[in-house]
Specification:
Layout (H helix, E strand, L loop, with lengths): L1 H9 L1 E3 L2 H8 L6 E7 L10 H18 L8 H7 L2 H5 L4 E7 L2 E7 L6 E5 L17 E6 L3 E7 L4 E4 L6 E2 H4 L10 E6 L8 E6 L5 H23 L6 E5 L1 H10 L6 E4 L7 H15 L4 H13 L3 E2 L2 H9 L3 E7 L6 H12 L3 E5 L11 E5 L2
Parallel strand pairs: 1-4, 6-12, 12-13, 15-16
Antiparallel strand pairs: 2-3, 2-5, 3-4, 6-7, 7-8, 7-9, 10-11, 14-17, 15-17
Helix pairs in contact: 1-4, 11-12
Length: 370
């Protein structure tokens, strides 16, 4: 029983952009989707297992109604009985299960509560949030140190994740010169939530050792950054030399929106913000004002729509460039089908506040490729 609990616990992951496409690709007779808000700390944490148990009761009834095997929920039941599982939550929890697999993701924003048993997963509530105008993240990165900051027009604020800010040696322990293959452990970083991660030191010689440790360092930094920024709709700028930035992009799956070439130590805060401002302004194609302007122009040319029937047809034909969903209407299955088709065809999907939609009365809007 202890082993089963550990297995369930290890399935708790931080949602990253690459996961959406993998989830969108899944089809099965009974795809279970459960999305619920959770709490990182405080007395409300004690209510989270109760809320999930009630949602599981709802899903069980839906599975019974269609004659499906309820064992699909076994890994989820195991997780709810693991106290460590509830100690490592974010602001929300998304669970996706089929008869063959179960994946659990911590979310870094509060979702609305949803349950669904269907032929595909419900992804609309967890898609990327539209960019917060004027806000951005900055990763200050050298071979010796990594810091993540959150910025706006007024200031830069240090972001503290489980393991950032950190030095290289905080994340990758020094080697033991007495042993060629020493198995050590370092602080937990990444998606498993475990308290330590086994790591072998001493593979190779000279430059090979340095390269392996640097790859490990950048990988761990990337996991921390991805967990902090994904789904916030906020662009990421990296301040690093071309060498460090290039290694970071090749080693991790983090999407870097703006690159500032140079050592972070050469700029003070005001100078750094000035360096970032212009490339960020160029990047922000999905800010509300830009999208409203683009939508109006495209609509007059027959290349945009706010009609779900038109948008669903365009999604099936892989014609959607950008799909915008109003946040308070994110649960419909027809909308979800359009979201999944857009993700699989490489289009962009955004969850928007009502006032940020191209037309506030629309629940869905789209820019077409042609």
């Amino acid at each position: 029983m202890a082993q089963a609990s550990e297995t369930a616990f290890l399935k708790l992951q931080t949602l990253q952009s690459r996961d959406l496409k993998a989830l969108a690709s899944v089809t099965a007779d009974h795809c279970v989707s459960i999305i619920t808000p959770t709490h990182r700390t405080g007395r409300e944490m004690t209510q989270d297992p109760i809320r999930l148990k009630n949602l599981l009761d709802t899903v069980t009834a839906q599975l019974q109604e269609v004659g499906a095997n309820e064992s699909i929920l076994d890994p989820i039941h195991q997780a709810t009985r693991d106290t460590r599982f509830w100690q490592h939550q974010g602001d929300g929890l998304a669970i996706y299960a089929t008869p063959d697999d179960c994946r659990m993701f911590r979310l870094n924003r509060k979702p609305q509560e949803h349950v669904l048993v269907a032929g595909q997963f419900l992804l609309t509530p967890i898609i990327k949030q539209q960019s917060a105008s004027g806000k951005f993240f900055v990763l200050s990165l050298t071979w010796d140190e990594a810091k993540l900051m959150h910025g706006d027009a007024e200031s830069l604020t240090l972001v503290e994740t489980d393991h950032l800010p950190a030095t290289f040696h905080d994340l990758v322990l020094p080697r033991d010169p007495e042993e060629n293959l020493q198995n050590t452990s370092h602080r937990s970083v990444g998606n498993t939530g475990s308290t330590s991660t086994a790591m072998f030191h001493g593979h190779g010689e000279g430059e090979g050792k340095i390269e392996a440790d640097r790859d490990k360092y950048l990988s761990l930094v990337g996991e921390q950054v991805a967990s902090a920024i994904y789904n916030t709709g906020t662009p990421l700028a990296i301040v690093a030399t071309a060498e460090v930035a290039g290694h970071f992009e090749s080693t991790t799956s983090v999407d870097v929106d703006v690159k500032i070439d140079g050592s972070p130590s050469q700029w003070r805060e005001a100078e750094l913000k000035s360096q970032i401002a212009e490339p960020l302004a160029t990047f922000r194609k999905d800010n509300p004002d830009t999208l409203k302007e683009r939508f109006g122009t495209a609509l007059s040319q027959g290349k945009a729509s706010g009609d779900l029937v038109d948008i669903s047809r365009a999604a099936e034909e892989n014609r959607i460039e950008t799909l915008m969903i109003r946040r308070d209407s994110a649960g419909g299955q027809e909308t979800n089908s359009a979201v999944i088709a857009t993700i699989l065809s490489g289009g962009d999907v955004l969850l928007c506040e009502p006032e940020s939609m191209p037309r506030e009365d629309d629940e869905i809007a789209s820019l077409f490729r042609f």
